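Look over this entry.
=====
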Amino acid sequence: MMPTRPCRVEIRTGALEDNYRFLAGLAAPHAELLAIVKADAYGHSLALCAPAVVRAGAKWLGVTSVEEGIAARELCQDARVDPRIGSHIDTRILAIAGVFPGQAAAAIQHRLTPVAWETWQLDELHAAAKAAGVAEPLAVHLEIDTGMSRQGVAPEQLPQALSRFGPASRLKLEGVMTHLFAADEADGETTRAQLTRLDKTLGRISAAGLFAEWLNVGNSAALLAGEAKTIAELAARHGMKAMLRPGLALYGLAPEFDPALDPAFDPALDPALNQDNPGPPVSALQAAARAALKPVLAWKASVVGVRAVPAGATVGYNGTFVATEPMKLALAPVGYGDGLDRKLGNRFSLLVRGQRAPLVGRISMDQSVLDVTEIDGVEAGDEIVILGEQGAEAITAFDHARASETIPWEVFTRIASRVSRIAV
C-alpha cells in the first residue's frame, strides 16, 4: 500500500472506553448515559468510536441524523455480546435532530429512535409506522423548548403535539428531552429556571394521560456540575428514569465553567484546588474528572524538510512574517484545508522534539511553517504534534480554541476528513 501524506489523527479507543466507564460511574445510580457520537464522533471517527463506547457498556448512542444513525447501526451490530444468552445486544440509537421529510421509513427500517417536536414530523412518523405494519408503536422522544428557542415544542404547541400520541396512534411517547443551554454557567440559575419550566410541562403531559419512560436532559457540563441527582429527582416525580448525554467529556475534556458568575457555585468547591489554578474555579467533582478523563484524540504530522533563511527573509503569503535574524524553518504538511485554523499563523506553536515551535507566516491550505531555530537537531521525518502530548509538553483543544477564538467542539469537528483517523 502506498504511504499517505504524513498528517494523521490517532484515536485511543481504550481511553474512550475508560472515559465512558468513568462518566457512567458519576451518573450512577441516578441516571443512564446516552453516549454522544454525532458529527462523526466530534470529528474523532464514528467508525472507531461508536463500537468502542458500545463495548464499554453504552446502551444508547446519540447521533445527529438518520444518515448517521444508519451508519452507527451498521457499525455496532457486532460490538457487544450478552454473555448470558450469547447474542448481540441491540444498541438504541437516538436521532437528536429529528427526521427530515422522507426519512421516517428509513428510521423505522434501521431501528432508530427519532426525536421530534414538529407536528409534521410526528405525522410522517405515524404514517410510516402504519405503512410498515410494525408490531409495536414506534418509540419517539419529544423535545421540549425550555428557553433555548432552537428546537422543541413551545408551551402553546404542546396540546397539538400530545394529540399525536392518542390511543389509535402508531407512536409511543418513550422519552421527553430538552437542551440545557447554559449548564456551564457556574451559578446554575439558568439551568434551574429551565428545569422548573420542564417540571411544569411534564405535569401537563401527565395530565393528558401520557407517561414517558425516559427524561433525557443534560450534557457533560450538567453531569460534572453534579446535576445527575437533581435531574433524577425531577424524573422520579413524574414516574420516569433519568438520562444524561455526555459529549465533550466522553472524548477526554472536562468543560470549563464560567468564572464570571458565582465562584461558590458548588458546595464541594475546595479552595485548595483553586489556589494555583489560573483558569475557572473547579469543584472536587470537576477536579476528579480532569484527573480521570483521558484525551482520546492526538493530531500529528511529520517534518517535511528544514531550511535556513537569512535575516530579512519573508515567510508565507503576503509576507506577514519577516525574519529579524538568521532562522531555521521546518515545513509542516498541515494547513487550513486540514482544519488548522488560519488565524493561528504568527500566534500559536506546535510541538517538535518536545519543545514549542512557533507557527510563522500565514497558514496555507496544505502547509505551514515552524520556527525551529532554538530546537537542536530537527530534521525531516521528525514528529510534529498539533494537538496532544509530546514529552512533558501538551497542546489541548482548549489551547487551540483560545488562540482561534472558538470552542473545543469546533476544533475537533473541523479536522478535515482527508486527515486519516487511526486507532492506536
Remarks:
- The domain at 13-292 is CATH 3.20.20.10 (TIM Barrel).
- The radius of gyration is 24 Å.
- The first strand starts at residue 7 and ends at 11.
